[in-house]
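Hi Y.,

Following your request, here is the sequence exactly as I used it, all 425 residues.
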Amino acid sequence: MNYFVGIDFGTSGVRAIAINSDSEIMAISRADYDIRDCEKWKTALYEVISSLPQQIKQNIRKIVVDGTSGTVLICDRTGNAIAPPMIYSDACGKEVIEAVKKIAPPQNSVCSETSSFAKLVLFLENEGLRSSFPNLYLLHQADWLGYLLHGKLGVSDYHNALKLGYDPLLLHYPDWLKDWALRNPAVTLPEVFAPSKTIGIIQEAVALKLNLPLDCKIGAGTTDSNAAFIASVGTVMPEVGTAVTSLGSTMVLKVLSDRQIDDARYGIYSHRFEHPNFGCLWLVGGASNVGCAVLRQFFTDRQLQEFSNRINPNISSLLDYYPLPKTGDRFPINDPNLTPKLHPRPDDPVEFLHGLLESMARIEAQGYKLLQELGASPIQQIYTAGGGAKNQTWGKIRDRHLQIPMKQAIQTESAYGAALLARLN
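Below is the corresponding structure, written out as tokens. Let me know if you'd prefer a different format.
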């Protein structure tokens, strides 16, 4: 029996899912980690693999890792991080963005305070790093985790590399970025492959350490939200107009579209999506800092369940919030200075939660409306992934705002999507 493993590195936790050749889940393992400590990434990676049953581990044919989009490391030529990682929501500041806008074309997806390229420009402003480490590599979270397994430095995929400036339509770095790289020889841009493309086999020392086959393949990675899209629709090929909302720590919207749309003004970008029936399609969407991280600031899991059950989802809340965990959002309002709006706060926690859920549903609807206005394919159905998908009250409130047929995700775990990529490619 052959098995295929997807490993998801989300905002707060790590999941590994092993599936068989029929795409059935055979094992799941979990670990906590600190997204701001890359050594904890390594520990969690090895932990979730080691925790899988030995019968499965000894028959794993391929592994694919997904990571949070826009979370990056700057590494030396031995793959060691020489600075703390910058995570997906870290903003680079106005001066850096002004520098980026002088390099990249207008409205390019890199012209964002949280893009991978902006973070690279910020790293290179540190003269001490440049002088101490003449050979630098910019790696996304999934890139570095894959490197730990296959040992090949400077490899990425076209989902993660999008925010670095890679052109997913022409499948190469654009001229403006190649010219910039020539002027900045201290850094090596990663070689980019299709998600799940086999990069190599697992390093022998790692295979022995984790009790894996010596011929286990390691594929190029993807982003957590793209893996969530694949997990939501499962093995059935999605139709154009299929959308997925990922309700994790953040809220990510994606629509499968026949048109590529990129607009840095609103934090909107398009990921390439290869479809066996339609060829090259696009996952058009954006990521908002609004999400479950805000809910966890105020409620425990038990309180969320108890209070949600006491909300009447058919009645609108009059509270109007913009619930951010900290200053700044990316989509549908792309403003690093946008302040959280969480007042007035009623004494009744049920009423407060109702206002939060109502407001997040309103922002989700605003995001989909914006995607449609900018030309994304008409939305036919919406799947929901992430931990928030389990909240039925929230689902009913969202249904009232969206008024688009909603479907239950085949799987809400991004790791399942990564595992499907490992099996299909």
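The mean pLDDT is 94.

Thanks again,
Q.
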